[in-house]
Amino acid sequence: MAVAQETVVLSGHIIDSLILAKVLDTILTMDGTFDLEEVSIGKTRHERSTARIVVRAGSAKLLSEILRAIQPHGASVQGETDCQHRAAPADGVFPEDFYATTHLPTQVRLAGQWIDVEGMEMDLGIVVDRETSCARAVPMAGVSRGDAVVVGRSGIRVIPLTRPQERDVFSFMESQVSAERPHGHIIADVARRMRQLREGHRARKAGCKVLVAGGPAIIHAGGREALTWLIEEGFVHVLFCGNALAAHDMEADLYGTSLGYGLSAGRVVPHGHEHHLRTINRIRGIGSIEKAVETGVIKQGIMASCIRHGVELVMAGTIRDDGPLPGVITDSIVAQAAMRAAIPGVGLALLVASTLHAVATGNLLPATIPTVCVDVNPAVPTKLADRGSFQAVGLVMDAASFLRDVARELGAHS
Amino acid sequence: MSRLLVCPPDYFSIDYEINPWMRKVNGVNPEAAVGQWRRLMEVLEHEVGAVLERMTPVRGLPDLVFTANAGVVVGRKAVPSRFRYPERQREEAHFEGWFRDHGYEILMLEPDIYFEGAGDLLRFPDGWFGGYRQRSDIRAFPILSEMFDREILPLELVDDRFYHLDTCFCPLSGGELLYYPAAFDQYAQSAIAERIADTRRLAVPEEEALKFACNAVCVGKHVVLPSGCPETMKWLDVRGYRPYEVPLEEFMKSGGSAKCLTLALD
Predict the structure, then answer these.
(1) Which of A19, A21, A76 sits opposite B154 (nearest CB)?
(2) A112 burial via Cβ count (<10 Å: 0-12, 13-18, 19+)
């Protein structure tokens, strides 16, 4: 998000002379925005007033034009310093007073220039390179000894989100978690965004990928067909899941069950509890999910669609996994890195029916990415918001109903 | 008793062009200039009853005659000007020297803040106004306001023919105002209208504004202004002022008139 900002101070008899009004009008008419951070009004006519104004613009060029236009009226840029940095003492260790990131767009000042920090994510450190004038957010495990890590708080600025121009559910930029709210308009907004993003993605525009992070409840609850349809129609481009979603999806294809329950009859099938193990074992025998799909062993479903449509798939394992399936990453740091690598280019994130994957993905997403967290348990979206992903819209509903409703909005036959 | 600082026009000429009025080809007639200046002094001394303090003119400083730009004087304190153009910066030392020699306490502005004295700072008893954008820097006014514990409302000047506030804005002793609205931006026009009631303001007609009707010297009920401004004269007369007109065309060649040629010392 290329938002540039600068804090200016305006002081003197700025109220009755309308100088303050003129400066603010100038910012707006030049397509900038402002926040009045502090205004102190003189108590007597002789006493001066002071205003601290944060000026924001869509680009550094526009910002400097605005500053040039308001400086003759007395608006002076506040004194600023470069960010401080210190060498990382060891691999995987930040210096003591390292700056911990938020997931908001952030800039650091290096050699007098404000530069955007790349790869913003919450709870990371910032590594700067003076020679190339670059700054990037780096996880603790990813820092190398000697890296220049930003410390302290000077020369760093965090840019609040600007309200998106689209007037939909995401423009509130705050979590709404309630089972009592109507879902229809949220689903309609999600579908509308997905349609726009599919067009953008087809036109190879940046930032148009849709990410789904899902749990196995999608399969149990009967959302498999809807998600498969969404993938086949090109609405989903990245899938984060664990061993279970993949295993039960393929179990359904091979046996017609999900964790042993007959998906159509709804009854426990004799020895059905073995099905997912037999599925995992079969795929392990074949060597990979890709091969299982290519050889026709797995014919349809979420995994088959992902392989056929080139969806970027990251499967992160957990301690309770059976198998796991080939392709499941069992080293959590490696899994985190693989998920992180798939985030750039995402324009919408749907976190569906998984506490683990919703929170893990939420931690990796910059606040600028519209996010929906769907779970039948209100504690999940609440937990996500409590952990800082304030931009996520919470939707308390069953995963299958959500996916079916979205698919129906997008033209699937119910 | 009003005291005014003036400087005889011995070396007055057009040696450079730093405002739209100045044309080197439009040379000054030295004899006519001296005659007009003397006439102005006569009116000020004998009709108005002002006491004149005469500075010694300096060869090579043609605009030293415009003493309004020496600085600003409040009681026994003087803030010497910081001129925007190098052509006039050479006058600074002479004006500062005069204030020092005459026992004024000198208050200095930072060197990078332009401020052209009483040309850009005009006073009503209950509020001062500062002109900026053409010559003075708006940043001068909060500093001056601190120095003298006064409110100063900055007004943006948008027409380079009216490059100092005193070319288009003249507070009168009774609280009335002569001004030329088009010389100001909309915000300044609104600020002026908010402070001075409509009935107490004369928006000088363009023709007279261009003759510098607003560049008038007001001492008590006496107002001395350049000749050729009948509307302004009439308006002043109706409001109980005694207007005097003095021909000052030679000085208009340099973009100055009655007020520019004087600096109020008390």
Answers:
(1) A19
(2) exposed
Q: Can you tell me the mean pLDDT for B188-217?
A: 97
Distance (Å, whole) CA B202 – CA B192: 12
Task: Please count the structural domains in chain B.
Answer: 1
> Is the pLDDT score of A52 beyond 90?
yes
How far is B126 from B117, CA to CA, in rounded Å? 19
DSSP state of A387: T
Cα–Cα dist B178/B166, whole Å: 10
Which CATH number fits the domain that encloses residue B97? 3.75.10.10
How far is residue A193's CA from residue A176's CA, in Å, rounded to a whole number? 18
* Residue of B164, B168, B218, B222 marked active site: B164
Query: Exposed, middle or buried, B131 (CB in 10 Å: 0-12/13-18/19+)?
Result: buried
Interface predicted TM-score (ipTM) = 0.92
Q: Domains in chain A, start-ordered, CATH in brackets?
A: 4-77 (3.30.70.2690), 84-158 (2.40.420.10), 169-409 (3.40.50.10690)
Greater confidence (B111 vs A252) lies with A252
> Please, which residues bridge with residue A35 across strands?
A54
Cβ within 8 Å of B, A 55-74: 72-74
pLDDT digits (tens, 9 = 90+) for A290-332: 999 999 999 999 999 999 999 999 999 999 999 999 999 999 9
Domain residue limits at B89: 3-264
Q: Does A277 touch chain B (CB under 8 A)?
A: no
Q: Which residues of A touch B127 (CB under 8 A)?
A: 45
Is the separation of the CB atoms in A393 and A170 below 8 Å?
Answer: yes
User: CA-to-CA distance for A58 and A53, rounded, in angstroms?
Assistant: 17
pLDDT in tens, A114-148: 899 999 999 999 999 988 999 999 999 999 999 99
Give residue A2's pLDDT: 45
Q: What is the predicted pLDDT for the residue at A258?
A: 80
Residue A163 confidence (pLDDT): 56
